[in-house]
Amino acid sequence: MSSALAFQPVLQRIAREIAQRPGRGRPADYIPALAACDPDRFGMAVAELDGTVYGVGDWRQPFSTQSISKVFTLALDLAHEADALWEHVGREPSGNPFNSLVQLEYENGIPRNPFINAGALVVTDRLHTQTGDAVGTLLDFLRAESGNAELAVNKDVADSEAAHGNRNAALGHFMAAYGNIGNPVPVLLDEYFRQCSVEASCADLALATGFLARHGIRADGTRLLTQRQAKQVNAVMLTCGTYDAAGEFAYRVGLPGKSGVGGGVIAVVPGRCTLCAWSPGLDEQGNSVAGVTALDRFTTLTGLSVF
């Protein structure tokens, strides 16, 4: 696809196809504040390296980023402490649900990767230690990269997560028992629940993810990550970004990606563009049914893939 202007008709075609598909999955019902979302909503955005952004449907509608936020906290912590992070969290697919406790005990409190909940808790803990304000650091970054100064935490969602966060609390305390959590667990949980409750649109997230397509370079031309670190983040997204459906996502979409149970999915075409699709209906693995389908269609129609 030689012309960047061809992105818009591709997005419009995808939106028409999605509208005709039955079966959108179900919103995340274990977080009451998300359960009421309309599974028929759909939006998609593509951002080029220079910040030009294209969109269709509900691409300007803010939604709960949830686990998509883990990509940004991972990058921000890597920027602070580099490879020291990998002494505390692995880089391998888990093969288990994102909130599983199973592997932690026989792996001595070291989570398999930064995108399952246990691994994300470790990353947020370390970013909070490095900065003194993990959520504030995340918001500053997202606002700067997206150009949207209004991005904020949805307090109702954060409170809902805190009220139903016993499993995450168990993960935090279990890892603290192994010495892999540095901050008091209640402090960490508050940071983590608020991190996951940041709201942003497809346009915001496609733009904010651009540094990974620019090999570590931020929107203002400064470097957040080395080229090697950007490669690492993209690699972990490809292998672990959609939990125990990562193989299927790589097979269908062929891009580094990260999903969230708010219904969003981001993806990176290194050196070319970044994407975000959103639809609240999820499959059994917690990934947006229409979002993954839309990304599948995008790579099929454009030929843009890492493979």
Structural summary, described in words:
With 307 residues, the protein is α+β, with helices and mostly antiparallel strands. A hairpin with a 4-residue loop joins β6 and β7. α3 packs across α5 and α5 packs across α8. The chain has a five-stranded antiparallel sheet. A three-stranded antiparallel sheet has the order 3-5-4.
Task: Give the SSE layout.
Elements: H1 7-19, H2 32-35, E1 43-48, E2 53-57, E3 63-64, H3 69-81, H4 102-106, H5 117-131, H6 134-146, E4 152-153, H7 155-163, H8 166-177, H9 185-196, E5 198-200, H10 202-208, H11 210-213, H12 227-240, H13 246-252, E6 257-259, E7 264-269, E8 273-278, H14 289-302
Antiparallel strand pairs: 1-2, 1-8, 3-5, 4-5, 6-7, 7-8
Helix pairs in contact: 1-14, 3-5, 3-6, 3-12, 5-8, 5-9, 6-10, 7-9, 8-9
